[in-house]
Amino acid sequence: MNDRAVVLVSGGLDSATVLAIARHEGYACHALSFDYGQRHGVELVAAARVARLAGAVEHRVVKVDLAAFGGSALTDVTLAIPETSTDGIPITYVPARNTVFLALALAWAETLEARHLFIGVNAVDYSGYPDCRPAFITAFERLANLATKIGVEGGAIEIHAPLINLTKAEIIRRGTELGVDYAATVSCYQPSRNGEACGSCDSCRIRRAGFQVAGAVDPTRYCCRTGQ
Amino acid sequence: MNDRAVVLVSGGLDSATVLAIARHEGYACHALSFDYGQRHGVELVAAARVARLAGAVEHRVVKVDLAAFGGSALTDVTLAIPETSTDGIPITYVPARNTVFLALALAWAETLEARHLFIGVNAVDYSGYPDCRPAFITAFERLANLATKIGVEGGAIEIHAPLINLTKAEIIRRGTELGVDYAATVSCYQPSRNGEACGSCDSCRIRRAGFQVAGAVDPTRYCCRTGQ
Questions:
Q1: pTM for the structure as a whole
Q2: Residues B169, B22: Cα–Cα separation, whole Å
Q3: Which of B59, B69, B159 is the mutation pick for testing A, counting most A CBs within 10 A?
Q4: Which chain B residues are closer than 8 Å to A147 by Cβ?
Q5: For residue A161, which of A111, A98, A89 has the smallest C-alpha distance?
């Protein structure tokens, strides 16, 4: 068995849990993050911390200029982050983000000769993004096996999405069992410079409710707006 | 009909022909090139020239650091470009390149609300790359329709690969009919700084043979090594 895996690590709660699961399953984990023009660098600092704490073999940050295309409140400073729930696909959606991220993870997997990719997408508490659904993951796996030298010449490439059918509370329970330190993670769409969460964006709301439902202590450092 | 298209333009012969075909079919073409850590910038200069000559609406160059992963003679200066044909997938293959490029084209297409992507892959004279085959294109089209807001909410996204079943000679004949100026293109894997082709790499050999078979004048500027 080739036990190398490329694990997408954003610095958030979900991908920290995925990394812990991949390590628990015995994979040598190569953690990958992207500097994609997101508004803040706080999550990349958190990603490095998460990778180190989980015992990843290495952690790379690759630059890819998604902000060049605009269209998302996560990369475009002229668009406001919504502070209440919205119907449909929200403005925080980054066009084709998971497609781009998995494509780059696949490129690294080819050079590492790794046949396993891990991604923390979630179809339950997923903010309505189309590229977080099981059908997307299945389609990408099929593509990966047609697109690559390792897929064509060697064994199958597998895309692992171990959180895809879990609620946020179930994710938190699983990570807690595996010893994930969620204080090291940042999920907020608009954290302060020192990494405090706003407490009011979609991501904060889903995360906070997850800790409540899981009956776990929420270690998130919130800024002044948490009273909401 | 939404007649906007994102067209991948590398600066080479194939993508210049694709752009001419897309324009001929009436699409408003948004040309996209990548600064992906390739050894030379000559092809990006050629891409800008090709986009301008073809009347593209705009031309963007997006940075994506594929060289961070290594593994290809096109991005890794420690690996030599082969000057004779090789069996199997050659060292000039850039891991998952077309997957990454189409993923980024898809991201731009989403923000433009364009439903058409054009790529100059070719399964006949294709150097043995896995991501140049029809099955790869079909799998990417399926993925694109699952991965995106426009795919989910609106009509279908189409990936056009008009060269996929053409020989190099047929591509050259088609482009010539459409008025493509091939002197503006650079196909060589190791051109000189002023854009002269080496005449001996895989790409040069395939291109030169294409002009011979097409019975067309080869306008390529070769450097001193062309005597080979």
A1: 0.88
A2: 19
A3: B69
A4: 96, 98-99, 130-131, 136, 139-140
A5: A98
Touching A: B residues 91-110, CB under 8 Å: 93-100, 102-104, 106-108, 110
Token pair for A31: 């953690």
Provide the 8-state DSSP code for A148. Answer: S
Burial class (CB in 10 A: 0-12, 13-18, 19+), B159: buried
Sign of the C-alpha dihedral computed for residues B205, B211, B215 and B217 taken in this order:
negative
H runs (alpha helix) in chain B: 13-24, 42-54, 97-112, 134-147, 149-153, 168-177, 202-214
Q: What is the largest CA-CA distance in chain A?
A: 56
- Per-residue pLDDT of chain A in tens (228 residues, 90 and over written 9): 449 999 999 999 999 999 999 999 999 999 999 988 766 688 899 999 999 999 999 999 998 888 778 655 555 556 565 566 555 555 555 788 899 999 999 999 988 989 999 999 988 765 567 888 999 999 999 999 999 877 777 679 999 999 999 999 999 999 999 999 999 998 888 888 878 898 888 889 989 999 999 999 999 999 865 544
Q: B78 to chain A, minimum CA–CA distance in Å? A: 15
3-state helix, strand, coil in chain B (%, to 5): 45, 10, 45
